[in-house]
Amino acid sequence: MNPKNLIQVKTIEGDFADDSFIKKELPVILKAGCRNWVAFSKWTPEFFSSIYGNVEVPMSNYKKDPYQAAQTKPNLKIAEYLRSALGIAAGKSDENQDLYSAGWFFCRGYCELLKDVSVPPCFQENWADRVQKVIHFDTRSILFGHPKVESPLHTDSFFVSTWFAMIRGQKRMRLVPPEYTQYVQNGFNVYDDKLVDELGAHGVPVYDCVIEEGDVVWFPPGWWHHVKNDTFTISLTTNFVSHYHFLPFEQQVRAVLMKPILNLAKVKEDCVLKTAKDRENLVNFDHSSKAVVDSYFVRNEAKFLAHFQSELAKTERLLAHLQH
Ligand SMILES: O=C(O)CCC(=O)C(=O)O
Ligand SMILES: [Fe+2]
User: Fold this and answer.
1) What are the residues whose beta carbons fall under 8 Å from the beta carbon of 49, sequence distance 6 or more?
2) Residue 149, SS3 per DSSP
3) Which ligand neighbours the alpha carbon of 144 most closely?
């Protein structure tokens, strides 16, 4: 059975210098996109076990808790996980069979692994990397998996797009575009024929692909994805923001940065209201005039105001442009 709303993800070939597919806002497979990387021949289970075997990596257990916070995930040594995963892929039962090594942020300490990666030219300008100085945002992780675990349907945070490279083994993925978000939820099984049919009845397309060893897949920001491991797998995933998709990404990063500022404003409010009656009328507001003078408080606040006024004007111009 192949329902009408099940759509095959398109494949592109070549040297991937042309990034025009990004503007089409559809997922694509970059055929053999990582086949000539050093990683493609080097990154075997033996390589990771011998060099990084004692490194502890977080374990996701999506069956037990699909929303597990990163800090609460238990760790396992890479060598131990790989032993289990290879055994499970070969049909052995194993106490670790519900565990998925679905995010080793290897750049925290093992960034030398990036030397084995040849980022396809179309992904080389990644604006998510540029905000590294502003906010700690890990864009790359390595995943180890086996056929008994999967990533339930979800979207990636910060409205980034994602590309991932299938270094060992094979995965499959089904995706739903963001404009149909009202019809899906975290954890929906889009591999269930009945659900796919129901989605079809509402006009919702479900994109489908197999990511073979050596392939790279890219999907645009906001796309829901459900990923299954067909075999033992090693893959590298990268959050990617092209200039074309920068605006919503920057807004989401800004929302994170604004949070402490807004919390601080609340503290200031509470402190002012300790002595003043209300914030409009600062009668009885008790503060040191000396400290205000000595710290150039008034001049600094004026600079602050000017900055926000200029940002406001820029945002208004941008909004006017977008609404055109
Ligand atoms: O490979 C997987 O299991 C999930 C990958 C994923 O969700 C991602 O790269 O954003
Ligand atoms: Fe994801």
Assistant:
1) 78, 79, 82, 83
2) coil
3) 1
- Structurally, what CATH architecture does the domain formed by 6-241 represent? Sandwich (2.60)
Model pLDDT for residues 36-68, shown as the tens digit of each residue: 999 999 999 999 999 999 999 999 998 887 777
Pocket of ligand 1 (CB under 6 A): 102, 143, 151, 156, 162, 164, 171, 225, 227, 235, 237
**Ligand 2 (single-atom ion) residues, CB below 5 Å:** 156
Ligand 1 atom showing the smallest separation from residue 151 Cα: 3
Q: For a substitution probing ligand 1, which of 143, 157, 174 has the most ligand atoms within 8 Å of its CB? A: 143
Q: Using the mean position of ligand 1's atoms as its centre, give its distance from the Cα of residue 91 in Å.
A: 23
pTM: 0.93
Contact 145, 229 (CB under 8 A): yes
Q: How far apart are CA 297 and CA 286, in angstroms?
A: 16
Nearest protein CA to atom 7 of ligand 1, as residue: 151
Considering the chain, tell me which residue range(s) the CATH 2.60.120.650 domain(s) occupy. 6-241
**Among all chains, which residue has been given the structure tokens 């491991």?**
229
d(CA 10, CA 29): 6
Q: How far apart are CA 141 and CA 235, in angstroms?
A: 8
143-198 tens-digit pLDDT: 999 999 999 999 999 999 999 999 999 999 999 999 999 999 999 999 999 999 99
Sign of the dihedral through C-alpha 169, 234, 38, 164: positive
